[in-house]
């Protein structure tokens, strides 16, 4: 529904779009003329011209610009009409409701009437989804197109614009599931979402556990690490090897000296003695 101000009655019909004009200017006398006012009027006129040519995306952009400069009911209802023609059904319905929620006045009577007549048919065009999740936990977060949606809302019939959408289930910052789907006008889509079971993460071992656990030989990992990093002169293996070498040297010396004292060809070898020749 595109509304303008040119005559007291409906002047032109453009495929469900009426351009309504009044004898009063669309710009009310509450605002003093200025650069911003002129820019808003120019954007509004450009939006109406684009709507006549059915260039709805361009019309929507011009009405958005005009409403940003001057948030007036006449601009808002034209913006809602352009949004409805470009698939922005949720925004259009919201703007029509805003017009109906405003205080009634003679200046807005035609806008309120148009919004009341248009809104029911527009709401019937809005598609919805009903989510059927299984395996959902209280810590899971549902996001549709990046916006967080309550589980109850998603399961009870969540409205969306026609087009492509992405549903993601997040759990503690990780993605559990992702669903891509496309909606058409008036569609009710049921989305089954069986979620895989969560595998509980094992807690990391504490320092106490590391110090008290052993490998079966009576030593703790801390003690084994200490042995590994112990200097060579403090290692028991070093001194054991040194003792073996000393003992070997003593035996060799004894045998050499003994061989010098006795005749290696005289007598028999007594048990436990070794004669070196």
Strand and helix layout:
Blueprint: E1 10-13, E2 18-20, H1 35-52, H2 56-69, H3 73-85, H4 89-101, H5 109-125, E3 128-134, E4 140-144, E5 147-149, H6 151-156, E6 158-159, E7 163-171, E8 174-183, E9 188-194, H7 207-212, H8 221-229, H9 236-261
Parallel strand pairs: 3-9
Antiparallel strand pairs: 1-2, 3-6, 4-5, 4-7, 7-8
Helix pairs in contact: 1-2, 2-3, 3-4, 4-5
Structure characterization notes:
There is one protein chain. The chain is an alpha+beta fold and 277 residues long. The chain is 44% helix and 18% strand. The chain has helices spanning 35-52, 56-69, 73-85, 89-101, 109-125, 151-156, 207-212, 221-229, 236-261; strands spanning 10-13, 18-20, 128-134, 140-144, 147-149, 158-159, 163-171, 174-183, 188-194. A four-stranded antiparallel sheet has the order 5-4-7-8. Helix 4 (89-101) runs antiparallel to helix 5 (109-125). The longest helix has 26 residues, at 236-261. The termini are far apart. Mean pLDDT is 76; it is low at 5-32 and 249-277.
């Amino acid at each position: 529904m595109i509304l303008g101000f040119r005559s007291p009655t409906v002047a032109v019909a453009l495929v469900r779009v009426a351009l309504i004009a009044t004898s009063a200017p669309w710009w009310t006398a509450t605002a003093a003329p200025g650069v911003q006012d002129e820019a808003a009027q120019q954007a509004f006129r450009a939006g109406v011209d684009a709507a006549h040519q059915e260039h709805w995306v361009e019309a929507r952009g011009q009405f958005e610009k005009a409403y940003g400069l001057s948030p007036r009911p006449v601009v808002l209802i034209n913006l809602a009409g352009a949004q409805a023609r470009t698939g922005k059904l949720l925004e259009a319905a919201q703007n029509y409701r805003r017009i109906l929620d405003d205080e009634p006045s003679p200046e807005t009577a035609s806008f309120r009437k148009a919004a009341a007549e248009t809104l029911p048919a527009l709401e019937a065009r809005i598609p919805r989804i009903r989510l059927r999740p299984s395996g959902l936990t209280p810590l899971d977060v549902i996001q549709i197109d990046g916006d967080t949606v309550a589980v109850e809302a998603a399961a009870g019939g969540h409205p969306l614009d026609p087009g492509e959408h992405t549903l993601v289930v997040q759990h503690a910052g990780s993605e559990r599931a992702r669903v891509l789907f496309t909606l058409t006008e008036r569609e009710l889509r049921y989305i089954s979402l069986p979620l895989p079971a969560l595998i509980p993460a094992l807690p990391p071992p504490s320092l106490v556990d590391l110090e008290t656990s052993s490998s079966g030989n009576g030593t703790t990992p801390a003690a084994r690490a200490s042995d590994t990093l112990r200097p060579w002169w403090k290692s028991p293996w070093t001194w054991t090897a040194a003792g073996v070498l000393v003992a070997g040297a003593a035996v060799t010396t004894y045998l050499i000296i003994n061989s010098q004292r006795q005749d290696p060809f005289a007598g028999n070898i007594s048990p436990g003695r070794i004669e070196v020749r």
